[in-house]
């Protein structure tokens, strides 16, 4: 499947809703910038943030016209109030870095032709860490990309300083909530693999688009689940166009979430699609173990999931010790071995030896079956990096099994000491700590 293409033409812009500049201050207070018309672009390609980032120009296109082919609705603030019953607390779904999320409802009484459906409305917290840039990035990417494994953006609101996003409602919330919430029913093996395959397909679609996209924020809380557990990627605020032509990577300020961001990206700021593959490996580990990527309630040695789990992944006998006890043994052993070997490869320190997302999809697809016989014989081939990565590696005695799901929601806000020096450099000012 390829990205939906659309034609965009010059139009009028809502007065406070225009061009992204490099300085965050300009983004957060766009009305302080002089409004200049930009050159008309009529080419038939996906409009991206870089198309709008000429510091000498402002985005004068009305997004509702620019993104016409996407059928996005540009709602007014008054309409948003109707949709969410004035952001009533009874409709509150949760809150992340962007701001609060409320459930709402739209139908054609609100806008002609609008399908009657539940929606989730994200409201930018004007005092929060994100701003106009993340909002615009999200509108541009999700407004133009359509895929069964990407959450559908229905519309947006851009009025004065207010920025909102309206998505299809995902009844089962985030994978994070389903996997780690203390009183949630445990996800079955097949469901976990279904989620892994679907999310992998979403990433593969982004990486293989005509104009490739690096998602940059792949994590359990950004994978939303439909009523039948079909996963969809949400939160495109950090997404970025992939390298073009002869470029091998994109150089950026490091942004993302601790515990999921690839080590080479954290160290150098060099971003490739393989950074997403690493993050996918982390989520695959979370699905296999039922443990969070970073869990400060555990003993020091078990706090970082990747470091803790890596030695178990290539040993069939040891692997069962780290499989989520909430599965109560109801999983395919061969499937778990294959998935663990795949996670190991995705988490390689050498980005070039990580598999691409299409390979990940192909490897995972047969694993949704619970029946070992249907998965076939498992043959693990140790990737060459094994020797390079762990010189003198000795298998460690596995730690005693700890109870899962001890982490409370407040842990999300706890600061971690790991990588402290690196993380505190200006290059890393965008890394979110959990
Ligand atoms: N389309 C949606 N349908 C249903 N629930 C949603 C939807 N979008 C977000 N939510 C819920 O809203 C809450 C906040 O989501 P949000 O994406 O803003 O933050 P987050 O992913 O938890 O954190 P972060 O800021 O790090 O991405 C989550 O609990 C999520 O399940
Ligand atoms: Mg999110």
UniProtKB/TrEMBL annotation:
PANTHER family: OS01G0588500 PROTEIN-RELATED
Compartment(s) of residence: Cell membrane
Top-rank taxon: Eukaryota
GO biological process, one term: defense response
Keywords from the named record: ATP-binding, Cell membrane, Kinase, Membrane, Nucleotide-binding, Plant defense, Serine/threonine-protein kinase, Transferase
Entry EC number(s): 2.7.11.1
Organism: Kalanchoe fedtschenkoi (Lavender scallops)
Gene Ontology molecular functions: ATP binding; protein serine/threonine kinase activity
UniProt-recorded name of the protein: non-specific serine/threonine protein kinase
Principal subcellular localization: membrane
Residues in Protein kinase domain copies: 87-368
PROSITE patterns membership: PROTEIN_KINASE_DOM (PS50011), PROTEIN_KINASE_ST (PS00108)
